[in-house]
Amino acid sequence: MIKLIMKIIGLIWLCAFLLFGCSDTIPEFSGEKAFDYLEAQCDFGPKNPGSEGHMQCKDYFIDFLNSHGAKVSTQEFPVEIREETFQCTNIIASYYPEKPRRIFIGAHWDTRPWADRDADITKHNTPIIGANDAASGIAVLMELATILQTYEPPVYGIDLLFFDAEDAGSYGANETWCLGSEYFAENYTGKEPEYVVVIDMIGDADLDILIESFSQHSAPELVKKVWDIAKKNDIRTFSLKMTGYIYDDHYAFLEAGYEAIDIIDMEYPYWHTIEDTPDKCSAESLQDVGTVLTHLIYE
Ligand SMILES: [Zn+2]
Questions:
Q1: What is the DSSP letter of 72?
Q2: 133-180, pLDDT tens digit by residue?
Q3: Are 148 and 95 in contact (CB under 8 A)?
């Protein structure tokens, strides 16, 4: 009799495992689809504040997010770039806004107004396309949006943050960079996140993501959580080597007391040049970063 009861209990466990175990599967992130979103952004041309591409691409994002199940809101703010004032816009796409526990995942969408690292100095005032430096991070956010529309995460609601005005700064003057994320961190009044993940320049075909130093020193547990996911899934573009302190869109969140990290690969020979075009990027790189974030959201 005891044996029979044990057998029945065993069977119940097996059924429960099959039922709930299977419903826990992590959705598949498509690097190919993300790459299409990277190219779609580049088709608008440069997206520096004040440009036609900037205006049109903002509307494209808002339409895209509205048609992919997000609750979309915007923050408008003026930005002064080299003594001229431009209207800039952060876009916030909230998924499952009723869920109290939240994660912010952000990237910047504006591109640098000047190719001032180009070998050809006659190009130093030409705006860049920014396939890697802008479009790559947003491309991953857009593919995450399509996943979030279909699959509800078990625990967290997600806010995808599209920051403007990241990339019109002067080298060596931190206060001139990352103005959109700074504005966001200072003016946000919604539900607070448990942590913030920023992605930037993650499309390089030769991707090698080292651990950024502000992230490691201020949010070591979150770094460990993310890099452990990469290791578990055999994603080798995430390296355990350290890189320097990079002032990026995560910084304003750290300063405001959030747990925040930056996933970035600064070793990109086409950084702030007119050569930062889609052919330097790859679907595989987007797939790696997107897969790690998908696991973070759904595990
Ligand atoms: Zn940049």
A1: E
A2: 999 999 999 999 999 999 999 999 999 999 999 999 999 999 999 999
A3: yes
CA of 227 to the centre of ligand 1 (A): 24
Strand ranges (E), the chain: 71-81, 84-95, 102-108, 157-163, 195-200, 209-211, 238-242, 260-264
Instruction: State the distance from the centre of ligand 1 to the C-alpha of 290, rounded, in angstroms.
Output: 20
Q: Give the Cα separation of 131 and 46 in Å (integer).
A: 10
47 Cα: distance to centroid of ligand 1 (angstroms): 12
**pLDDT cut 70: percent of the chain above it:** 92
Ligand 1 centre to CA of 124 (Å) is 14
Q: Which residue in this structure is represented by tokens 């009044």?
A: 189
CA of 152 to the centre of ligand 1 (A): 33
Domains of the chain with CATH codes: 30-298 (3.40.630.10)
Question: How far, in Å, CA of 164 to CA of 159, rounded?
Answer: 16
What separation in Å is there between the alpha carbon of 272 and the centre of ligand 1? 6
Tokens of 41: 């952004």
Q: How far apart are CA 157 and CA 71, in angstroms?
A: 12
Give the whole-angstrom CA distance, residue 276 versus residue 40. 15
- Those residues whose beta carbon sits under 5 angstroms from the ion ligand 1 are 133, 167
**Å from CA of 247 to ligand 1 middle:** 11
**Quick check: pTM over 0.85?**
yes
Could you tell me which of 212, 209, 224 has the C-alpha nearest to residue 254? Answer: 212
What are the strands, taking DSSP E only, across 5-151? Answer: 71-81, 84-95, 102-108
CA-to-CA dists, residue 89 to 56, 100, 166, 202, angstroms: 12, 26, 11, 22
* 186 CA distance to ligand 1 middle (Å): 22
